[in-house]
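notes to self, project folder thing:

trying the whole complex as one job this time. last attempt i did each chain seperately and stitching them together was a nightmare. two parts in total, labels are on each line so i dont mix them up again. if this works i'll redo the older ones the same way
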Amino acid sequence: MIIINLAGCGVSVPRDLLQTEGSALAIRQLQTRLYPTKDEEILITGAINLFQDMGYSIDTSNKDLGLILAFKSVDADNAGTDILRFLALLNKPIWDTSGTGIPDRQEIHITFTVKPSMRDDGFLARITLKRVMVDESDTALGADHASPTGIPLIDQMQETALDREKLLAEELYDEFFEKLSKSIFLESNKI
Amino acid sequence: MKSSILAALFIVLTGCATTEFAALKDENTNPLQLKEMQTRKFEATDPNLVTRNVISTLQDLRFTIKGAEFSEENIGSVEASKSYVYPSALRTEDLSIEVTINPRSNKSTEVVASLASRWETIADPKMYQDFFTALSKSIFFSENEVE
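result (full assembly):
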């Protein structure tokens, strides 16, 4: 009966996934800084250099759209993850009888964008971060590995409220943009 | 026995009770209606700026950008996805979105968005309306330098 319930809910998508949060503008402002430069390319190059220095791999760099996508894999090891491990264990018997089904690696995905300021006084740089939990057993089992119920194993975990809080900490962005300013300075002075 | 059946039925009925789900495209979906809900024209005339605003909107909506292009013909495209957890089960699925941006005239830019789950195209007007409302706000923020 539980299987029917899960399958019944599973064939559709929650309708509120594209609703804008009330705090969207405040979050956007937190993630954005104005750089008073006429040179968009120097912002992009400075950001690429910085991400590489921070150990990120550049996935996409599109200068026409002022877009950089970068990611880094690290071991998952914090309180938020422990909660997910605990919850995953509780649900383990429902869909996983062969592997642990517990995420033990995390990926940080960065989306960095640059847009011209409408006041014509520079460019607006914005960074957004996303943390994704990855189950190492994916490589052996595949994300859609058939489980006894036909439900795939847990392959990625959504951000927890704790993640969200951490990813919206003001000092995180202050620190990033300070580093970006230094990287742009180095790039513009060819140091 | 009777009580256990009732309890199981309760679980089934309440499993989806707190969350509204989107309609998927089925055989009865009119292609014209689907196209209509997926398409909007914006007065903004710079397709590059509209494409950048599509990316900003998807950032606002906490999508992960998978890729974006802007061609010499001034046509933009953006692909992104967002994970969600089923309310009744601890597993995730992806909602994917593909957006194309086409210059239509000197006065407008057309944006076409297509939402899909792992199973099927989404044919729910509310979800497309939510996306275009968010995009309109983003273009407004951008044009008025609110961000």
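what i see at first glance: The radius of gyration of chain B is 19 Å.
need to look closer tmrw
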